[in-house]
Design goal:
The complex is a heterodimer of chains A (264) and B (192). Chain A is of the alpha+beta class. Chain A is 46% helix and 21% strand. Chain A has five helices and eight strands, in the order H-H-H-H-H-E-E-E-E-E-E-E-E. Chain A has an eight-stranded antiparallel sheet, covered by helices on one side. In chain A, strand 1 and strand 2 form a beta hairpin. In chain A, helix 1 packs across helix 2. Chain A is elongated, with a radius of gyration of 30 Å. Chain B has 192 residues and is mainly α. Classes of the chains: A alpha+beta (264), B mainly alpha (192). The interface between A and B is large, with 47 and 75 residues.
């Protein structure tokens, strides 16, 4: 199944309308594909708006009370009471031993509670650290995969590569695009400023006066971005590659300034 | 006209909820109870079930607010996705689909004078209603069956007695058209 096949499924996924088998397949793909995850987020923003089609209704006041009541009781349980039960004074010496035992048991109980709370907090901190390390591991793994894919692409027979130089819009930015003889292409850009909200970078294939749109991409915090795309057949031999900033999702004709461009 | 007082953003509320701030949860509930409850009643066609799910949703928000990632979308989208997902799960678990289908007319909406609901009705709701009215009827019907009745593409094809491929095309085309019509407004739903 190709990347475009998965992309076709994203709108239905945002509506929870995929059949179980397709849903499972797409879920596996989403675990590996950041581009599709971003696109699904966009579709979900659109489908969320459909909620306005339902008539607004006021729930009963008890719902709010129940929610806050449960939240409070959960909070109280978590912090736990540290009150030691009142112990009646006993005159009988044997009873005193019993009282002391009760006090000791209470102290032990409170101590255990505190210990459990501490363990719980420590567990949460460890889980947080594991999540952070896991995210870093995933990031490194994906970078390695991208590097491997780039090496494979560049070393394939008939592969071509072009460098894109910065315009005054993005001094210091660089990009390389590599593509094989089937047109399967990978663009790797660095040093780009963050695109404004609701805008994305878009790749263009320019042949003569014709400007053919490529896909869009966003950069990470360091200004780097990777894009997998398909070079149109008409652009395989003598295209100029350019990158502009365009409205999210891309446009069919360029409207924004050029940030990077290859030599003709 | 007096300027409106500065309002805590949804993202700030969620961050406060991560810190276990109950008042932030109450504020978020007050903002979205009307739209989410309306959505859940529309899905479940039953006020009691909808109130139960609404409660579950906000308790989940309390426990899982840290899962919200502002880089992936707005709190409104997160909340609606959460509520709808739980509503559809409940619907499927109850096997209430037939009940919903037979019920026919939906429960009438109640007057909600709250300023929050007014804002939803007058602006954001109007945008969506207007956009939906511009979709071809068959596309809109497929979208509504998926969104509110929780039907899969195959189930919609069976219900409409249409080929599966046709239903897939209608849904995709409908959603693309809806996105075009809403433009970037869908990314501004909810409170700033």
């Amino acid at each position: 199944m190709s990347h475009d096949d998965y992309r076709e499924m994203l709108p239905a996924r945002a509506l929870s309308a995929l059949d179980a088998a397709e849903d499972r397949v797409l879920t596996n793909h989403l675990d590996e594909c950041a581009e599709c995850r971003r696109e699904l987020d966009d579709w979900q923003a659109t489908t969320a708006g459909l909620a306005f089609e339902a008539s607004p209704l006021e729930p009963s006041a008890q719902v709010r009370e129940r929610i806050l009541g449960q939240v409070r009781s959960a909070t109280v349980e978590a912090s736990s009471s540290k009150v030691i039960p009142f112990v009646q004074p006993r005159k009988n010496i044997w009873s005193s031993f019993g009282s002391l035992g009760a006090i000791a048991a209470s102290i032990l109980f409170v101590g255990l509670l505190v210990y459990v709370v501490l363990l719980w907090k420590e567990n949460r901190a460890l889980q947080s650290q594991i999540a952070t390390l896991s995210a870093e591991n995933t990031k490194v793994h994906k970078e390695l995969e991208l590097n491997a894919a780039a090496v494979k692409l560049i070393s394939s027979p008939g592969a071509k590569m072009a460098e894109l130089g910065a315009t005054p819009m993005a001094p210091g930015a660089t990009a390389k695009i590599a593509f094989d003889k089937t047109g399967h292409a990978m663009l790797m850009a660095q040093g780009l400023p963050a695109a404004p909200a609701d805008m994305e970078y878009q790749l263009w294939f320019i042949v003569g006066k014709e400007k053919m749109p490529g896909k869009t991409f966003r950069t990470d915090g360091s200004g780097s971005g990777v894009l997998i795309d398909q070079v149109p057949a008409a652009a395989m031999n003598s295209a100029v590659f350019a990158i502009t900033v365009e409205p999210k999702g891309g446009v069919t004709s360029p409207t924004g300034q050029i940030y990077l461009v290859s030599r003709s | 006209m007096q300027p409106e007082p500065a309002q805590t953003t949804d993202v700030e509320l969620l961050k406060a909820i991560v810190r276990q701030d109950e008042t932030a949860l109450a504020e978020l509930y007050d903002r979205y109870r009307v739209i989410l409850f309306g959505l859940l009643v529309r899905i479940l066609n039953n006020r009691e079930e909808a109130e139960d799910v609404l409660q579950e949703v906000f308790l989940q928000v309390w426990r899982r607010a840290a899962d919200f990632d502002e880089n992936r979308g707005r709190p409104f989208t997160w909340l609606v996705t959460l509520a709808r997902s739980r509503g559809i799960d409940r619907l499927r678990n109850l096997a209430a689909r037939e009940r919903v289908a037979q019920a026919g007319a939906r429960e009438p909406s109640e007057e909600v004078s709250d300023a929050v609901a007014d804002a939803f009705r007058s602006e954001q709701r109007g945008l969506v209603t207007s956009a939906l009215s511009q979709l071809p009827e068959e596309q809109k019907r497929a979208l509504m069956l998926a969104y509110f009745d929780g039907l899969t593409q195959s189930e919609i094809a069976t219900k409409l007695e249409a080929p599966l491929g046709t239903v897939k095309t209608r849904m995709r085309a409908g959603l693309i058209k809806l996105r075009e019509l809403l433009g970037n407004k869908s990314t501004t739903f909810g409170f700033e």
